[in-house]
């Protein structure tokens, strides 16, 4: 369409920036009037104007861009992050007869995640200090796990900040598995706990029976215990069988002074691990 | 737990999301597998940086994974996922707002010269559009991607960006003006369809060029908000 005489005279058409200025109201009154007058008489510029204002669906680009395959490293990253998330669980997913199971299941996986980093840290930073530091850093998720049942708000943060969980994952990279490839999370946990028990005073010690937290039913047999330091204070690490479970172990951390206070013992933190 | 042994690839998105909410550990992965290319495209086009886009996509998928129970089914699952990705991108843009931007060179590039041939293939045009998008200043690009690529309304986009609708219109107009030679090509049957016309209708010379954003443009984009 070269029939428009104006087209042969550069400068007589509106340039795209002028049109955008007009749309934005940046032209002064005289220039704006002139531009509008030109638009009214020039099919080329009014076509440009329509494109720039996006009249109708003229500016729709949804089908006009090339496909953009996601890079494999991004896929791997996102899938690893998703893998670390605990499965969603709702009331409907748990048998009504076993409400404890509903609470224990996400907690269980959550702790495995936190413990993964705990074990990883211990393997890297050998020695009691490293263990205690790692234990304290894992308490954010552990506290949440004791206060929320089927909720899953806090645990993923732990998963996100501790990339070393779930070493049995095929694709997910973990620091722990790099350090000790053949160990399962459970083995790592037990190795860690075993080492930890022994490092308190060089010998294993047993907590007094009155250290049992008030939330643990009376008569529950203590599996084992060990001394630790929690938030700068001496504490007992107490392992009790998970209620109604042969494989889950509830781990409680109790201030040593709480045992002798005569009051009901409150645990400082609590988490769940799997018995091998 | 939902029944096991179901071929997830046979289920539609809603069914997969429902299984995910019920505790199926694989359902969400299947949803991601289906839509990851398009979700990646949204993130990359919005942010313009692959590292940021990967971070935003990961954030978005985690938050969608966790919030799946709040999906009410008023929209398609894909629509919802796109929104989550866009929001993660906007979060990331706000956070990187303090990061100094690297000004693009004040030169005009050659990539969008439709006068090279009057038989530009559709593929070339798409690729040119993609690269032209990437040269827009952040504010203009985001507005254009949300409105013209993702199809959000001006009002929705304005709310998402926290600016006035007029500002979104301005940014889109400014961005489209920069892409104009390509847009003309895209709309066949347009009076400016042929390259010869594209060249002569602008007053910027014989070749229709897409002007690369300058620091000046970025400032203008900023004050327009």
Summarize this entry quickly.
The complex is a heterodimer of chains A (276) and B (225). By secondary structure, chain A is of the alpha+beta class.
Task: Write up this protein.
The complex is a heterodimer of chains A (276) and B (225). Chain A has 276 residues and is α+β, with helices and mostly antiparallel strands. Chain A contains 11 helices and 4 strands. A 4-stranded antiparallel sheet of chain A has the order 1-2-3-4. In chain A, helix 5 crosses helix 10 (185-199). Chain A is rod-shaped and about 95 Å long. The N and C termini of chain A lie far apart (81 Å). Chain B is mainly alpha-helical. Helix content of chain B is 62%, strand content 0%. Chain B has 11 helices and no strands. Chain B has helices at 13-21, 27-47, 50-67, 77-95, 122-135, 138-149, 154-161, 165-178, 180-186, 195-201, 215-224. Chain B is globular, with a radius of gyration of 20 Å. Chain B starts with 12 loop residues before the first helix and ends with a helix. At the A-B interface, helix 1, helix 3 and helix 4 of A face helix 2, helix 3, helix 5, helix 6 and helix 8 of B.
List the helices and strands and how they pair.
The complex is a heterodimer of chains A (276) and B (225).
Chain A: H1 16-24, H2 29-41, H3 43-53, H4 72-84, H5 99-124, H6 128-137, H7 139-147, H8 155-161, H9 175-179, H10 185-199, E1 224-230, E2 233-241, E3 248-255, H11 256-259, E4 269-274
Antiparallel strand pairs in A: 1-2, 2-3, 3-4
Chain B: H1 13-21, H2 27-47, H3 50-67, H4 77-95, H5 122-135, H6 138-149, H7 154-161, H8 165-178, H9 180-186, H10 195-201, H11 215-224
Helix pairs in contact in B: 1-2, 2-3, 2-4, 2-6, 3-4, 5-9, 6-8, 7-8
